């Protein structure tokens, strides 16, 4: 018998090649850096969902742009909707983490509330993908948000942050009593969100570029002023 595959027929050599284990760079990447690959999947998925929405996004395209496979994506995220929900969770986790890092409790109430309003405006302006994902989720009646226990807990943190600042302002006589933290949050978010969500339509209808640096700066200061005037006695 000849050594190696010299005595094999062409069909036998082909069968052996198909069954022999070969190194898979994507599998190696996953086992060596699973968190890195997971982040890569979420980043590619975010871009796909933002561009095509939930229904138009293709998992094949997401897998092609990452160091893993479609099968592995399904293994870790369940299905396309599970991956979409994970992207939403990561995006809400990011903005809430930044809010908590502002350390508003160390600032006087008016300065703290102004800083939060300015940060929120800047975050939306610098992260249009977040705005787009929220818009997409509203098309789906927020059913993925409703199914995520993680997001529900994350979003409560901003109300606690606002309540702490607001209560200090009321106690110091700087803010009028009777305003709910949720209403403060909704006002700040609405003013910041609209500047990004309606930028294209406002530009088309009025010829007004809300994304131009000087105009965006003016809008930012207006948002801060509006919030503080709403709160003052």
From TrEMBL:
It holds the Pfam family TetR_C_29. One of its GO terms (molecular function) is DNA binding. Residues 35-95 form the HTH tetR-type domain. Residues 17-32 have a biased composition (Polar residues). PROSITE patterns: HTH_TETR_2. InterPro entries: Homeodomain-like_sf (IPR009057), HTH-type_TetR-like_transc_reg (IPR050109), HTH_TetR (IPR001647), NicS_C (IPR041474), Tet_transcr_reg_TetR-rel_C_sf (IPR036271). Coiled coil: none annotated. Residues 58-77 bind DNA. Keywords: DNA-binding. Residues 1-36 are annotated as: Disordered. It comes from the Bacteria. This is Transcriptional regulator.
């Amino acid at each position: 018998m000849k050594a190696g595959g010299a005595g094999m027929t062409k069909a036998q050599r082909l069968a052996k090649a198909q069954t022999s284990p070969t190194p898979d760079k994507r599998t190696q990447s996953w086992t060596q850096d699973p968190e890195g690959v997971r982040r890569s999947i979420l980043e590619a998925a975010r871009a796909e969902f933002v561009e095509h929405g939930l229904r138009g996004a293709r998992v094949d395209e997401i897998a092609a742009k990452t160091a893993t496979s479609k099968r592995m994506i399904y293994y870790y995220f369940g299905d396309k909707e599970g991956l979409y929900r994970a992207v939403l969770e990561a995006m809400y986790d990011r903005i809430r983490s930044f809010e908590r890092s502002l350390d508003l409790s160390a600032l006087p109430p008016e300065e703290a509330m102004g800083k939060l309003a300015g940060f929120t405006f800047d975050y939306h302006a610098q992260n249009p993908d977040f705005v787009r994902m929220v818009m997409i989720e509203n098309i789906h009646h927020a059913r993925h948000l409703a199914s995520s226990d993680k997001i529900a807990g994350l979003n409560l943190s901003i109300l606690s942050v606002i309540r702490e600042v607001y209560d200090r302002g009321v106690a110091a006589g700087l803010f009028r009593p009777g305003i709910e933290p949720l209403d403060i949050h909704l006002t700040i978010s609405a003013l910041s969100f609209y500047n990004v969500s309606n930028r294209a339509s406002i530009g088309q209808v009025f010829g007004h570029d809300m994304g131009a640096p000087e105009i965006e700066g003016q809008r930012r200061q207006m948002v801060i002023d509006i919030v503080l005037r709403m709160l003052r006695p």
